[in-house]
Amino acid sequence: MIRKAVIPAAGLGTRFLPATKSQPKEMLPIIDTPTIQYVVQEAVDSGIEDILIITGRGKRAIEDHFDRNVELEAKLEEKQDELLWNEMRRLSDMANIHYVRQRETNGLGDAIYYAKQHVGNEPFAVLLGDTIMDSVIPVTQQLIDTYEQYQSTVIAVETVPREKVNRYGIVGGTALSDTIMQLDALIEKPSIEAAPSTLAIAGRYILSPEIFTAIEQTGKGKGGEIQLTDAFQILLRRESIYAHRIEGERHDIGNKLDFLKTTVKFALKRKEFSAPFLKFLRATLAEYEK
Length: 290
Prior knowledge:
UTP--glucose-1-phosphate uridylyltransferase; Spore Coat Polysaccharide Biosynthesis Protein SpsA, Chain A; EC 2.7.7.9; GalU_uridylyltTrfase_bac/arc; 11 helices; alpha/beta; nucleotidyltransferase; globular; 13 strands; Nucleotide-diphossugar_trans; five-stranded mixed beta barrel; single chain
């Protein structure tokens, strides 16, 4: 039973400066919903209600977002806006959310190590705080199902173009089915020639508690930081690691172009303005094509 989830959200968000100078990148909204709310919702939809968010300096807005705002609730009640009032109350009640601050940005491996005391000696889910998954079955639930079958660490992966493998952690191994692979190689941002496949790590994991020992033995890697991919190479000596090819679409909100694409796609799914927005897009494209 996977009971706990960890959401690393301590990155500086430098790719979105100056917008992220005073607000967390995880709070950037897709229309009217902060990115991290989608991530928390995925964990909840996967049956997890005990969530630890790894934050850093300047990330207080995340805590405020999931806390109650009594004054706002009173104002909405006064205006008889029951729909918004219910939504604000749901935010503070959707999960048991805890917070710990990463003292310095030192890589994803280091961030996850801050969860050691909270998760104890049990497997747990990890969901990156700047990555949204759009899927019928929550991607975390897909990984949980695979973990229950193999009882070992599971990593979400997706296929990327070969010319882009140097932007991701890439895995290699033996295919067990169309969606499952038993891994024998994990490389952080390899060259095109050195990449063992075109399967990239996709920001969701089910980790065994052995990962903490592996992180302790991991030195600084790419970028002078403790990389989770390097810790996996150590973990691989002790236990099997499986990759699960996700069913769904991953949106990297830390990337400006992906952020724009995600906003457009999600807007077209919103019934209240999908039709007029599509009309606007068509008219705008027609103007640019002249």
